[in-house]
Amino acid sequence: MKIDKHTKYILGACLGVLLFGLGFKSGEYSALSSPLIKQDFSLYQDVWTTLSQKYVDQKKIVPKQMMYDSIKGMVSSVGDPYTFFLTPEENKNTKDDLGGKFEGIGAQLGLKDNKIVVIAPIKDSPAASAGILSGDIITAVDGVSTEKWTLPQAVSKIRGKGGTTVKLALLRSGKSLTMAIKRGEIKVPTIELSYKNKAAILKLSRFGDDTNSEWDKAVEIIAQKWGLPAGRQKIKGMVLDLRDNPGGYLQSAVYLASEFLPADVVIVKQVSIGKVDELYKSDRTGKLVGIPLSILINEGSASASEIVAGALSDYKKATLVGKKSFGKGSVQEAVDLKDGAGLHVTIAKWILPKGRWINKIGVKPDIEIDNKKNEGNTLEEKDDLQLAKAITIVIK
């Protein structure tokens, strides 16, 4: 999942370690005297001083950028693509993602085998209009290779002011291609509710800031239509569409899954080294317990989406339809640092109720169906075989 909404500030010492070599008072960061930190940082200080004094092109000595890049290097040394440092701009962009409004091309990105991969283009976005597909590997941005890039680096380079253009080099099914895409303002609705053949169809685009409140409103409507006496029901079941949903807040995944379960049922287990396992349970008896439910997933369904789909599948509360999901089973903590910078650090892995860890494996659907999109990367409702099957399951 892209971010889990934790508020623990436990990693500020990492920033303090490097700032000490840049002239900050060590007393401002008491963790420097911690017995856990035994490294001698005089080498870092020597390199900083020598480079600052002797490099031939002094215009390229930009202290703040040097500081940010050195922190990025330190964090990336652990070799985890989901643990990374964010500059203030990158941190803001990440939060804007979950807020649902930003400027860019409108593509959800992920990391797979240390490559920048398109999880899904956002509906009606410049990326979707240009023909970007789920699974496209972005190999270069404006002529610069993405090798060894972190997700925030990719986002910051691709995102930009509306009306400007970014050139992407892509690898698709082994073939190289390039696309010039004009950026625009991206508005991402969390929830879209529609009906077909006496089925409520709820499309969820992400697990973001407003998801829980929007979910409550939609569920209230669905519950009223489904909860009528027999023979008067306006809907017979529900389809939860999590296709191309890249995830978001862990807590939102737990909240949404709780809607279909009795209270105090384990939805996901968080496993960390040296800590007691943390169980996330349903926090209420849901309003839709017992509703016939099918869940649509595909290769663009990641993280929080996989928790909801996997947990409800484990409890036999839903039939999964579509394609195997993305496969991200780790938990990140988002830490806000000085001057608006941030740090995302992998703190645990999450396990589904029946013990499955789906990292790099994904959640397999009960019924596997592929949709064939046309050359314009569009899928018309009449050609949506996955949705048609999901509806059939819940109204039979």
From TrEMBL:
GO terms for cellular component: outer membrane-bounded periplasmic space. One of its GO terms (biological process) is proteolysis. InterPro entries: ClpP/crotonase-like_dom_sf, PDZ, PDZ_6, PDZ_sf, Peptidase_S41A, Tail-specific_protease. It comes from the Bacteria. Residues 95-163 form the PDZ domain. SMART domains: PDZ, TSPc. Keywords: Hydrolase, Protease, Serine protease. Gene3D superfamilies: 2-enoyl-CoA Hydratase, Chain A, domain 1 (3.90.226.10), 2.30.42.10, 3.30.750.44. Belongs to the peptidase S41A family. This is PDZ domain-containing protein. The lineage of its organism: Bacteria, Candidatus Roizmaniibacteriota.
